[in-house]
Amino acid sequence: MKLTPFESTMLSGWEDVYRKSQVSLWILIAIREEKGFVEEIRTFIHRHGDVDMSEQSLYRSLRRLESATLIQSRSVENPKGPDRKYFSLSPEGGHVLGAFIERNITAMFLSSPNNDLFSNRKDVS
């Protein structure tokens, strides 16, 4: 599908906002997949969520999730320098993530009548 320059700009802006709004979800999934160090989390989010974020933004999000008790952290000795922080899901975080995925992804997109809404249709011109 060929887009006009205006449509392309609008789509790019929408995609950027959409991706950034999913950062907490991607962080929790990365941690669930045992990517507990900051660089592992960042790489996972970039690879799977297609979101580039600064280390500072990631730390801010991690602090927010930890304060909400969805994740927990511990210091891990690093023989090459200062201790590193390792993040893991708290029991509550695991339950909340599972419920969120079930309610907002599985039920809404994968096993519902909404599937037809996302099939390839001719765009309205």
What's the helix and strand layout?
Elements lengths: L4 H17 L1 H10 L5 H12 L5 H13 L3 E6 L7 E6 L1 H20 L15
Helix pairs in contact: 2-3
Task: Characterize this entry briefly.
The protein is mainly α and 125 residues long. Helix content is 58%, strand content 10%.
Structure, explained:
By secondary structure, the protein is mostly helical. Helices cover 58% and strands 10% of the residues. It has a single domain (21-113), classed as Winged helix-like DNA-binding domain superfamily/Winged helix DNA-binding domain (Arc Repressor Mutant, subunit A, Orthogonal Bundle), CATH 1.10.10.10. The chain has five helices and two strands, in the order ααααββα. β1 (71-76) and β2 (84-89) form a beta hairpin.
Instruction: Give the overall average pLDDT.
Output: 89
Instruction: Tell me the fraction of residues in β-strands, as a range.
Output: 5-15%
What is the highest CATH level, the class?
Mainly Alpha
**Strand order in the largest sheet:** 1-2
Global Rg:
18 Å
Number of domains: 1
Poorly predicted spans: none
Tell me how many strands there are: 2
The N- and C-terminal alpha carbons lie at a distance of: 11 Å
| Structure annotation, total helices | 5
CATH topology: Arc Repressor Mutant, subunit A
Instruction: Please state the overall shape, judged from the principal axes of the Cα atoms.
Output: globular
What structural class do you assign from the helix and strand content? Answer: mainly alpha
Helix content: 55-70%
